[in-house]
Write a structure and sequence with these properties.
With 371 residues, the protein is of the alpha+beta class. It has helices at 10-20, 79-82, 118-131, 139-146, 164-167, 195-204, 215-229, 240-244, 252-257, 265-269, 315-334, 344-347, 355-362; strands at 2-6, 22-29, 32-37, 48-53, 56-61, 86-95, 98-103, 111-116, 149-153, 179-183, 187-192, 276-282, 288-295, 305-306, 309-310.
Length: 371
Amino acid sequence: MYHSIKKKDLQALLDSLNQSHQCVGPVVSEQTLKYSSISKLSQLPLGYSDQQQPGKYQLHYNSQSHYYFSISTGAQGVKPWLFKPEQKLWSVNKQKGSIEFNEAISEQKPLAIIGLRACDLAALKLQDQHFLQQQYIDPYYAQYRENLFIVAVNCHRSVDTCFCASTGDGPEVKNTYDLLLTELEQDFIIQSGSEAGRKVLETLSSQIPLNAVTAAQEQEKQQGLDKASQQLRRLPDRPVAQLLSHRLNHQQWDQIAQRCLSCGNCTMVCPSCFCHKEYDEPTLDLSGSTHIRQWDSCFTAEHSYIAGFHFRKETRQHYRQWLTHKFAFWHEQYGRSGCTGCGRCISWCPVGIDVTEELEILCQEPSCHVD
Protein backbone atom coordinates (compact mmCIF):
# COMPACT_ATOMS: atom_id res chain seq x y z
CA MET A 1 0.00 0.00 0.00
CA TYR A 2 1.20 3.49 -0.86
CA HIS A 3 1.27 6.41 1.55
CA SER A 4 2.78 9.87 1.55
CA ILE A 5 4.59 11.46 4.45
CA LYS A 6 6.04 14.88 5.08
CA LYS A 7 9.81 15.05 4.73
CA LYS A 8 10.33 16.04 8.36
CA ASP A 9 8.54 12.84 9.39
CA LEU A 10 11.39 10.75 7.98
CA GLN A 11 13.00 11.37 11.39
CA ALA A 12 10.34 9.13 12.94
CA LEU A 13 11.45 6.31 10.62
CA LEU A 14 15.10 6.80 11.66
CA ASP A 15 14.08 6.76 15.34
CA SER A 16 12.09 3.58 14.87
CA LEU A 17 14.85 1.74 13.01
CA ASN A 18 17.57 2.83 15.44
CA GLN A 19 15.74 1.13 18.29
CA SER A 20 16.49 -2.33 16.89
CA HIS A 21 19.09 -1.78 14.14
CA GLN A 22 22.30 0.01 13.39
CA CYS A 23 20.92 2.58 10.98
CA VAL A 24 23.18 3.48 8.05
CA GLY A 25 22.54 6.12 5.41
CA PRO A 26 24.24 8.31 2.80
CA VAL A 27 26.30 11.16 4.18
CA VAL A 28 28.68 13.62 2.54
CA SER A 29 32.25 12.86 3.56
CA GLU A 30 35.61 13.58 1.92
CA GLN A 31 33.88 15.15 -1.09
CA THR A 32 31.90 12.04 -1.95
CA LEU A 33 28.90 10.08 -0.68
CA LYS A 34 29.53 7.42 1.96
CA TYR A 35 27.24 5.13 3.92
CA SER A 36 27.75 5.82 7.63
CA SER A 37 25.80 5.37 10.85
CA ILE A 38 23.08 8.00 11.19
CA SER A 39 20.46 8.93 13.76
CA LYS A 40 19.31 12.37 12.61
CA LEU A 41 17.62 13.59 9.45
CA SER A 42 20.12 16.46 9.31
CA GLN A 43 22.92 13.98 8.56
CA LEU A 44 21.42 13.14 5.16
CA PRO A 45 22.78 15.15 2.18
CA LEU A 46 20.00 17.73 1.88
CA GLY A 47 20.64 20.06 -1.05
CA TYR A 48 23.51 18.05 -2.53
CA SER A 49 23.66 16.64 -6.05
CA ASP A 50 26.47 15.05 -8.04
CA GLN A 51 28.12 15.47 -11.39
CA GLN A 52 29.78 12.36 -12.79
CA GLN A 53 31.69 11.94 -16.05
CA PRO A 54 34.48 9.58 -17.15
CA GLY A 55 37.24 10.04 -14.57
CA LYS A 56 35.32 12.77 -12.73
CA TYR A 57 33.19 12.90 -9.60
CA GLN A 58 32.06 16.18 -8.05
CA LEU A 59 29.41 17.21 -5.54
CA HIS A 60 27.39 20.42 -5.76
CA TYR A 61 25.39 22.12 -3.04
CA ASN A 62 22.23 24.15 -3.56
CA SER A 63 20.83 25.77 -0.43
CA GLN A 64 17.45 26.18 -2.16
CA SER A 65 17.02 22.47 -2.89
CA HIS A 66 14.51 20.46 -0.84
CA TYR A 67 15.88 17.06 -1.87
CA TYR A 68 17.71 14.65 0.45
CA PHE A 69 18.45 11.99 -2.18
CA SER A 70 19.65 13.83 -5.28
CA ILE A 71 23.12 12.28 -5.22
CA SER A 72 22.87 9.24 -7.43
CA THR A 73 25.75 7.16 -6.03
CA GLY A 74 29.05 7.45 -4.23
CA ALA A 75 32.09 5.24 -4.61
CA GLN A 76 30.49 2.42 -2.60
CA GLY A 77 27.04 1.06 -1.95
CA VAL A 78 25.94 -1.77 0.31
CA LYS A 79 28.78 -4.18 -0.53
CA PRO A 80 31.32 -3.12 2.14
CA TRP A 81 28.71 -3.64 4.86
CA LEU A 82 28.07 -7.28 3.93
CA PHE A 83 31.19 -8.45 2.09
CA LYS A 84 33.72 -6.69 4.30
CA PRO A 85 36.88 -5.22 2.71
CA GLU A 86 38.76 -7.09 5.43
CA GLN A 87 37.21 -9.96 7.36
CA LYS A 88 38.74 -12.09 10.12
CA LEU A 89 37.68 -15.66 9.40
CA TRP A 90 39.30 -17.60 12.23
CA SER A 91 42.17 -17.61 14.68
CA VAL A 92 44.63 -20.33 15.68
CA ASN A 93 46.30 -20.55 19.10
CA LYS A 94 48.64 -22.97 20.83
CA GLN A 95 47.11 -24.32 24.03
CA LYS A 96 49.27 -26.62 26.18
CA GLY A 97 50.74 -28.56 23.31
CA SER A 98 47.55 -28.57 21.20
CA ILE A 99 46.22 -26.23 18.54
CA GLU A 100 42.88 -24.50 19.02
CA PHE A 101 40.83 -23.05 16.14
CA ASN A 102 38.19 -20.39 16.79
CA GLU A 103 35.77 -18.88 14.29
CA ALA A 104 35.64 -15.08 14.23
CA ILE A 105 31.85 -14.85 13.98
CA SER A 106 30.40 -12.68 16.74
CA GLU A 107 26.99 -11.27 17.56
CA GLN A 108 26.11 -8.27 15.38
CA LYS A 109 23.32 -5.74 15.74
CA PRO A 110 20.95 -5.97 12.74
CA LEU A 111 21.68 -3.45 10.02
CA ALA A 112 19.23 -1.04 8.37
CA ILE A 113 20.44 0.77 5.26
CA ILE A 114 18.62 3.81 3.88
CA GLY A 115 19.03 5.17 0.36
CA LEU A 116 19.96 2.15 -1.78
CA ARG A 117 19.20 2.56 -5.49
CA ALA A 118 17.93 0.02 -8.01
CA CYS A 119 21.42 -0.65 -9.42
CA ASP A 120 22.78 -1.49 -5.97
CA LEU A 121 19.84 -3.74 -5.14
CA ALA A 122 20.40 -5.67 -8.38
CA ALA A 123 24.06 -6.04 -7.40
CA LEU A 124 22.99 -7.21 -3.94
CA LYS A 125 20.99 -10.03 -5.54
CA LEU A 126 24.14 -11.09 -7.43
CA GLN A 127 26.17 -11.03 -4.21
CA ASP A 128 23.46 -13.15 -2.59
CA GLN A 129 23.75 -15.68 -5.42
CA HIS A 130 27.50 -15.89 -4.91
CA PHE A 131 27.73 -15.98 -1.11
CA LEU A 132 24.47 -17.73 -0.24
CA GLN A 133 24.48 -20.63 -2.68
CA GLN A 134 22.83 -23.56 -0.97
CA GLN A 135 25.89 -25.82 -0.93
CA TYR A 136 28.48 -23.12 -0.18
CA ILE A 137 26.94 -20.56 2.16
CA ASP A 138 29.42 -18.02 3.45
CA PRO A 139 28.58 -17.75 7.18
CA TYR A 140 30.10 -14.27 7.54
CA TYR A 141 28.13 -12.73 4.69
CA ALA A 142 25.03 -14.65 5.79
CA GLN A 143 25.29 -13.22 9.30
CA TYR A 144 25.23 -9.63 8.03
CA ARG A 145 22.62 -10.32 5.36
CA GLU A 146 20.11 -12.25 7.46
CA ASN A 147 18.67 -9.33 9.40
CA LEU A 148 19.37 -6.58 6.86
CA PHE A 149 16.54 -4.05 6.60
CA ILE A 150 16.53 -2.11 3.32
CA VAL A 151 14.97 1.30 2.77
CA ALA A 152 15.38 1.80 -0.97
CA VAL A 153 14.98 5.06 -2.89
CA ASN A 154 13.74 5.55 -6.45
CA CYS A 155 15.94 7.74 -8.63
CA HIS A 156 14.50 11.03 -9.88
CA ARG A 157 17.63 11.96 -11.84
CA SER A 158 20.57 10.27 -13.52
CA VAL A 159 24.15 11.38 -14.05
CA ASP A 160 26.14 11.13 -17.27
CA THR A 161 27.72 7.79 -16.31
CA CYS A 162 24.46 5.96 -15.49
CA PHE A 163 23.26 3.22 -17.84
CA CYS A 164 21.01 1.08 -15.61
CA ALA A 165 18.10 1.49 -18.03
CA SER A 166 19.94 -0.56 -20.65
CA THR A 167 20.86 -3.34 -18.19
CA GLY A 168 17.22 -3.57 -17.09
CA ASP A 169 18.04 -2.79 -13.46
CA GLY A 170 16.76 0.75 -12.97
CA PRO A 171 16.08 3.51 -12.38
CA GLU A 172 12.88 2.29 -10.70
CA VAL A 173 13.22 -0.08 -7.74
CA LYS A 174 11.15 -3.20 -8.40
CA ASN A 175 12.07 -5.62 -5.59
CA THR A 176 14.56 -6.58 -2.83
CA TYR A 177 13.44 -3.94 -0.34
CA ASP A 178 11.52 -3.66 2.92
CA LEU A 179 10.49 -0.04 2.46
CA LEU A 180 10.68 2.10 -0.68
CA LEU A 181 10.84 5.88 -0.75
CA THR A 182 10.09 8.06 -3.75
CA GLU A 183 11.21 11.59 -3.06
CA LEU A 184 9.01 14.43 -4.25
CA GLU A 185 9.72 18.12 -3.82
CA GLN A 186 7.69 18.41 -0.62
CA ASP A 187 6.92 14.85 0.45
CA PHE A 188 7.94 11.20 0.28
CA ILE A 189 5.84 8.40 -1.12
CA ILE A 190 6.49 5.37 1.07
CA GLN A 191 5.50 1.75 0.50
CA SER A 192 6.35 -1.62 2.01
CA GLY A 193 7.83 -4.57 0.14
CA SER A 194 8.04 -7.15 2.91
CA GLU A 195 6.34 -8.22 6.11
CA ALA A 196 9.08 -6.49 8.10
CA GLY A 197 8.45 -3.30 6.16
CA ARG A 198 4.71 -3.55 6.72
CA LYS A 199 5.23 -3.81 10.48
CA VAL A 200 7.46 -0.73 10.52
CA LEU A 201 4.83 1.21 8.58
CA GLU A 202 2.20 0.03 11.04
CA THR A 203 4.29 1.35 13.93
CA LEU A 204 4.84 4.65 12.14
CA SER A 205 1.10 5.11 11.61
CA SER A 206 0.68 5.70 15.35
CA GLN A 207 3.40 8.37 15.34
CA ILE A 208 3.04 10.36 12.13
CA PRO A 209 0.28 10.95 9.55
CA LEU A 210 0.31 8.43 6.68
CA ASN A 211 -1.61 10.22 3.96
CA ALA A 212 -3.21 8.89 0.80
CA VAL A 213 -1.15 9.49 -2.33
CA THR A 214 -2.76 12.05 -4.62
CA ALA A 215 -2.93 11.96 -8.39
CA ALA A 216 -0.57 14.95 -8.51
CA GLN A 217 1.97 13.08 -6.40
CA GLU A 218 1.72 10.01 -8.62
CA GLN A 219 2.32 12.23 -11.63
CA GLU A 220 5.36 13.85 -9.98
CA LYS A 221 6.73 10.40 -9.16
CA GLN A 222 6.39 9.23 -12.76
CA GLN A 223 7.95 12.41 -14.12
CA GLY A 224 10.98 11.82 -11.91
CA LEU A 225 11.36 8.21 -13.06
CA ASP A 226 10.95 9.25 -16.70
CA LYS A 227 13.65 11.89 -16.27
CA ALA A 228 16.00 9.39 -14.64
CA SER A 229 15.46 6.96 -17.52
CA GLN A 230 16.83 9.46 -20.02
CA GLN A 231 20.45 8.32 -19.92
CA LEU A 232 23.35 9.23 -22.18
CA ARG A 233 25.00 5.81 -22.06
CA ARG A 234 23.75 2.35 -22.82
CA LEU A 235 25.07 -1.11 -23.53
CA PRO A 236 25.26 -2.24 -27.16
CA ASP A 237 21.91 -3.45 -28.45
CA ARG A 238 23.47 -6.76 -29.49
CA PRO A 239 24.19 -10.15 -27.86
CA VAL A 240 27.19 -8.86 -25.90
CA ALA A 241 27.88 -12.12 -24.05
CA GLN A 242 28.11 -14.21 -27.23
CA LEU A 243 30.05 -11.61 -29.20
CA LEU A 244 32.52 -10.75 -26.44
CA SER A 245 33.57 -14.35 -25.87
CA HIS A 246 34.74 -14.42 -29.52
CA ARG A 247 36.69 -11.17 -29.30
CA LEU A 248 39.57 -12.36 -27.12
CA ASN A 249 42.19 -11.33 -29.70
CA HIS A 250 40.53 -8.11 -30.79
CA GLN A 251 42.96 -5.25 -31.38
CA GLN A 252 40.93 -3.01 -29.05
CA TRP A 253 42.41 -4.79 -26.01
CA ASP A 254 45.77 -3.27 -26.93
CA GLN A 255 44.18 0.17 -27.26
CA ILE A 256 42.66 -0.16 -23.80
CA ALA A 257 45.97 -1.36 -22.33
CA GLN A 258 47.70 1.81 -23.52
CA ARG A 259 45.37 3.80 -21.23
CA CYS A 260 44.59 1.40 -18.37
CA LEU A 261 46.76 1.73 -15.23
CA SER A 262 45.82 -1.70 -13.81
CA CYS A 263 44.96 0.18 -10.61
CA GLY A 264 41.86 -1.94 -9.94
CA ASN A 265 39.63 1.04 -9.13
CA CYS A 266 36.87 -0.35 -11.34
CA THR A 267 36.75 -3.60 -9.36
CA MET A 268 36.92 -1.86 -5.97
CA VAL A 269 33.93 0.40 -6.66
CA CYS A 270 31.92 -2.23 -8.54
CA PRO A 271 28.95 -3.29 -6.36
CA SER A 272 28.98 -6.89 -7.64
CA CYS A 273 32.71 -7.82 -7.81
CA PHE A 274 33.70 -10.37 -5.19
CA CYS A 275 37.36 -11.29 -5.82
CA HIS A 276 39.37 -11.71 -2.64
CA LYS A 277 42.54 -13.21 -1.23
CA GLU A 278 43.24 -14.92 2.10
CA TYR A 279 46.34 -14.83 4.27
CA ASP A 280 47.52 -15.58 7.80
CA GLU A 281 48.74 -12.88 10.16
CA PRO A 282 50.87 -14.37 12.96
CA THR A 283 51.12 -12.96 16.47
CA LEU A 284 54.43 -11.37 17.46
CA ASP A 285 55.35 -14.30 19.73
CA LEU A 286 54.29 -16.83 17.05
CA SER A 287 51.90 -18.49 19.48
CA GLY A 288 49.00 -18.10 17.08
CA SER A 289 47.70 -16.44 13.94
CA THR A 290 44.58 -14.91 12.42
CA HIS A 291 43.26 -15.99 9.03
CA ILE A 292 42.03 -12.95 7.11
CA ARG A 293 40.02 -12.46 3.92
CA GLN A 294 40.69 -9.23 2.05
CA TRP A 295 39.31 -7.69 -1.13
CA ASP A 296 41.45 -8.36 -4.18
CA SER A 297 41.25 -7.47 -7.85
CA CYS A 298 41.78 -9.42 -11.06
CA PHE A 299 44.02 -6.49 -12.07
CA THR A 300 46.73 -7.42 -9.56
CA ALA A 301 49.68 -9.66 -10.45
CA GLU A 302 49.08 -11.73 -7.30
CA HIS A 303 45.56 -12.62 -8.45
CA SER A 304 46.91 -14.58 -11.44
CA TYR A 305 49.82 -16.19 -9.58
CA ILE A 306 49.59 -19.98 -9.33
CA ALA A 307 52.40 -22.45 -8.60
CA GLY A 308 55.14 -19.93 -9.28
CA PHE A 309 53.66 -18.72 -12.58
CA HIS A 310 51.78 -15.53 -13.54
CA PHE A 311 49.30 -16.56 -16.23
CA ARG A 312 48.09 -12.98 -16.77
CA LYS A 313 51.10 -10.68 -16.84
CA GLU A 314 49.94 -7.88 -19.12
CA THR A 315 47.46 -5.07 -18.58
CA ARG A 316 45.51 -6.10 -21.68
CA GLN A 317 44.99 -9.52 -20.09
CA HIS A 318 43.87 -7.99 -16.79
CA TYR A 319 41.26 -5.76 -18.41
CA ARG A 320 40.12 -8.50 -20.78
CA GLN A 321 39.63 -10.89 -17.85
CA TRP A 322 37.51 -8.36 -15.98
CA LEU A 323 35.35 -7.26 -18.91
CA THR A 324 34.71 -10.72 -20.39
CA HIS A 325 33.98 -12.23 -16.99
CA LYS A 326 31.60 -9.40 -16.07
CA PHE A 327 29.69 -9.22 -19.35
CA ALA A 328 30.02 -12.73 -20.80
CA PHE A 329 30.91 -15.52 -18.42
CA TRP A 330 28.69 -14.36 -15.56
CA HIS A 331 25.77 -15.49 -17.69
CA GLU A 332 26.96 -19.08 -17.28
CA GLN A 333 27.37 -18.68 -13.51
CA TYR A 334 24.43 -16.48 -12.53
CA GLY A 335 22.13 -16.32 -15.53
CA ARG A 336 22.81 -12.67 -16.27
CA SER A 337 25.54 -10.06 -16.71
CA GLY A 338 27.51 -8.97 -13.65
CA CYS A 339 26.92 -5.31 -14.51
CA THR A 340 23.94 -3.36 -13.15
CA GLY A 341 24.65 -0.06 -14.91
CA CYS A 342 25.65 2.06 -11.90
CA GLY A 343 28.51 3.64 -13.91
CA ARG A 344 30.94 3.76 -10.97
CA CYS A 345 33.71 2.08 -12.98
CA ILE A 346 33.51 4.97 -15.48
CA SER A 347 33.44 7.79 -12.91
CA TRP A 348 36.18 6.40 -10.70
CA CYS A 349 38.57 5.28 -13.45
CA PRO A 350 41.55 7.68 -13.19
CA VAL A 351 41.90 7.80 -16.98
CA GLY A 352 38.17 7.78 -17.76
CA ILE A 353 37.84 4.43 -19.58
CA ASP A 354 34.18 3.99 -20.51
CA VAL A 355 33.00 0.37 -20.55
CA THR A 356 30.01 1.19 -22.74
CA GLU A 357 32.28 2.70 -25.42
CA GLU A 358 34.73 -0.22 -25.25
CA LEU A 359 31.93 -2.78 -25.51
CA GLU A 360 30.50 -0.93 -28.51
CA ILE A 361 33.84 -1.26 -30.31
CA LEU A 362 34.45 -4.86 -29.24
CA CYS A 363 30.95 -6.01 -30.24
CA GLN A 364 30.68 -4.22 -33.58
CA GLU A 365 29.13 -6.19 -36.42
CA PRO A 366 30.39 -7.11 -38.91
CA SER A 367 33.41 -7.92 -36.79
CA CYS A 368 36.64 -6.22 -37.76
CA HIS A 369 38.89 -8.75 -36.01
CA VAL A 370 37.90 -11.91 -34.17
CA ASP A 371 39.52 -15.13 -33.09
